[in-house]
Amino acid sequence: VSQSRYTNAIKKKLLKTGAMSDYELDHCTPLTLGGNPTDENNLWLEPYAGDYGARQKDQVEQYLNRMVCAGKMKLVLAQRLICSPAWKNIYDDLKKSKTYGANNAGEDGE
Questions:
Q1: What gap in Å lies between CA 15 and CA 83, rounded to an integer?
Q2: pLDDT averaged over every residue in the chain
Q3: Angle, CA of 48, 30 and 46, to the nearest 5°
Q4: Fewer CB atoms near the end CB (10 Å): N or C, the chain?
Q5: Measured on CA atoms in the order 51, 55, 58, 60, is the torsion positive or negative?
Q6: What is the pTM assigned to this prediction?
């Protein structure tokens, strides 16, 4: 089974309203932070729209991954932060940071 076929089947199962293209099938705990790739309890539909959509969360995932890999944050803390509403505060702080935009240029999300 192809990855897109697999993810589209899960999207259809989870989709309540709107179009599948309006959402990213996202991992609550991202793969880069030790999330399980196939556990449906770790998967949810994240909208692209809004101030705190999928693309914004991807930026926080990348930041937390860099912090963990640099030894500046424990993995368990990063996992807790990304799976809680706190990720929005982190995003707001990153957006205000003058260095983050330059460090994040060209990176894609999960």
A1: 20
A2: 86
A3: 20
A4: N
A5: negative
A6: 0.79
